[in-house]
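User: Let's play a game. I give you a shape written as C-alpha cells, and you guess the letters that built it. Ready? Here's round one.
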C-alpha cells in the first residue's frame, strides 16, 4: 500500500532534488487507489511553487500539409484526415484574436503552425503580429525547427516563450516519427534558450510508450532546464496510424501529471490537448495531480473546454487565476 504519508515523504525528497532511481521505479509501479494517494504529494509540491492557475490559449495559424510523419498528427500530409488545410493566416486576423484574448484572464497567446518550419515571408508575418501585441499579452509561438537568426528576430519583436515539444522519449521517438530526428528537436530547444527565450516543451501521451519512457521524457526535460511542460493526451485521429490507440485511462493520465510534478517540482506544468476527452469525471483532479496551468479553448484540430467553461471549473474549485 502507498499512503498519503509516503507521497509527502517523496515530495520532500523531490523538493531537495534527491529522488532516487528506486523512488522513480516506485512511482512507475503505482496503480489504482495508490495513484489517488500520490496526489497528496503532487498537490503539496504545486502549492509550494504556484499560488494560481495560469491560462494560455493557442491559434492554429497555418493548418495541414505538414511534411513530417508524426504518427499521432492530424496535420501530416502522409495521412488522410478531415483536418482543415489553409495557408498562414493574415496578421490582422491573428492580431484581432490576440486583442480579444488580452481582455480576458488568459495570460499567454501562442501562434502555432503546421510544418517543420517557416518561410522568411512567414517569419515577417509573425514579427508583425508580435509587434502589435507585445505590450498587451505574453506571446508564445510554436513554429517548428528554427535557426538562431529567426529565433533572435522573434525575440526582438516581442516573443516571450518558444514552444517545441519533444513529443516522447528518445527511446520511443523512432516509432512515431521518421522524417526528422530527436536531436533536431533538442537543438531547437537549446537555440531558443541561447537567445534568451523562455522554453515550453513537453509531449503527447498514449502513443504506446511505457511508463518508464514517460519518466525518461521527464528526466530529459529536467536536464534541458525548460521553463514549462505542456502535457498532451492523445485524441486518436481517424486516418492516422494511431487511430485505434486506446492506452489511456483517466487515472493513468493523472499518474502521468503527478510523475512530472515530482520530477520537475518547480516548473510550470500545463495540461493541454486531450484534457476534455481523457479525464472524464476525474478532470478536477488534474490540479491536485500537479497542473499549474491549462490550455483553454480549442486545440489545433479538436475542440476543448471553452474559456467560460474553464473559468467556471476554476471558480467551483476556488482556485485563483
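Assistant: Ready! My guess for every position:
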Amino acid at each position: 500500500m502507498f499512503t498519503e504519508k509516503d507521497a509527502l515523504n517523496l515530495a520532500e525528497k523531490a523538493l531537495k532534488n534527491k529522488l532516487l532511481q528506486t523512488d522513480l521505479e516506485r512511482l512507475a509501479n503505482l496503480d489504482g487507489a495508490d495513484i489517488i494517494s500520490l496526489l497528496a504529494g503532487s498537490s503539496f509540491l504545486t502549492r509550494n511553487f504556484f499560488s494560481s492557475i495560469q491560462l494560455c490559449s493557442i491559434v492554429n495559424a497555418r493548418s495541414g500539409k505538414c511534411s513530417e510523419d508524426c504518427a499521432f498528427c492530424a496535420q501530416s500530409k502522409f495521412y488522410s484526415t478531415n483536418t482543415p488545410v489553409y495557408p498562414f493566416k493574415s496578421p490582422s486576423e491573428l492580431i484581432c484574436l490576440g486583442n480579444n484574448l488580452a481582455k480576458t484572464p488568459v495570460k499567454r497567446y501562442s501562434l502555432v503552425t503546421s510544418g517543420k518550419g517557416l518561410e522568411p515571408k512567414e517569419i515577417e508575418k509573425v514579427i508583425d503580429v508580435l509587434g502589435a501585441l507585445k505590450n498587451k499579452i505574453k506571446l508564445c509561438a510554436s513554429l517548428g525547427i528554427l535557426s538562431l537568426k529567426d529565433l533572435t528576430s522573434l525575440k526582438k519583436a516581442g516573443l516571450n516563450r518558444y514552444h517545441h515539444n519533444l513529443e516522447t522519449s528518445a527511446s520511443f521517438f523512432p516509432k512515431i516519427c521518421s522524417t526528422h530526428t530527436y536531436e533536431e528537436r533538442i537543438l531547437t530547444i537549446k537555440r531558443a534558450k541561447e537567445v534568451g527565450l523562455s522554453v515550453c516543451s513537453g509531449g503527447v501521451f498514449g502513443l504506446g510508450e511505457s511508463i518508464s519512457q514517460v519518466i525518461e521524457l521527464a528526466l530529459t526535460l529536467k536536464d534541458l532546464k525548460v521553463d514549462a511542460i505542456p502535457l498532451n493526451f492523445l485524441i486518436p485521429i481517424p486516418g492516422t496510424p494511431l487511430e485505434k490507440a486506446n492506452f489511456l485511462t483517466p487515472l493513468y493520465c493523472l499518474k502521468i501529471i503527478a510523475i512530472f510534478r515530482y520530477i520537475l517540482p518547480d516548473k510550470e506544468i500545463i495540461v493541454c490537448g486531450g484534457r476534455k476527452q481523457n479525464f472524464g469525471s476525474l478532470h478536477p483532479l488534474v490540479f491536485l495531480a500537479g497542473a499549474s496551468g491549462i490550455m483553454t479553448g480549442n486545440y489545433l484540430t479538436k475542440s476543448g473546454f471553452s474559456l467560460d467553461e474553464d473559468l467556471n471549473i476554476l471558480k467551483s474549485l476556488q482556485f485563483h487565476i
